[in-house]
Amino acid sequence: MAIMRRSLLATVFAGLVAGGSRLFGGTPDRIGRLTLTDAQWRKRLSSSAYDVLRHAGTERPYTSMLLHEYRKGRFACAGCDLAVFDSSAKFDSGTGWPSFWQALPGAVEQRSDFDIGIPRVEVRCARCQGHLGHVFNDGPPPTGKRYCMNGVALSFHPVPK
Length: 161
Prior knowledge:
There is one protein chain. By secondary structure, the protein is an alpha+beta fold. It has 2 domains: about 35 residues; about 120 residues, Metal Binding Protein, Guanine Nucleotide Exchange Factor, Chain A. About 25% of the residues lie in helices and about 25% in strands. The protein has a 6-stranded antiparallel beta sheet. Strands 4-3-11 form a 3-stranded antiparallel beta sheet, with no helix packed on it. Strands 1-2 form a two-stranded antiparallel sheet. The longest helix is centred in the first third of the chain and has 23 residues. The N and C termini lie far apart (about 50 Å).
């Protein structure tokens, strides 16, 4: 009986994941990630968002339209629209990039990054694996973290009035 229940749950979950792929125009893998071809990403994103999200580029500091965005709402991945940060966790780090002291639960993944010769922690979207930025241990309480994000890798959805 337990095996039948597990099979039924697995089938239902697989159906939900497959349905999600139609919403985003791509194919999710076994954990619900969004996978698109390079051509699909190029069509979907601006050239600067493509460079950052797909090739771990970095936008110039103080150029993001989201740097001074402090309305209530959610910041989402510009690649797949997964909500990754709540506006209540945003702060002015003085670095020139939108900064947050906490990501939404399960929304981001972290990886070691040695691209510039020193160890850093890269932050990627949990759904599409798009590069968002890096996290550092010099942020404010309560976490002490500074999620230093590329604004071009994010979109903002204000809370409706």
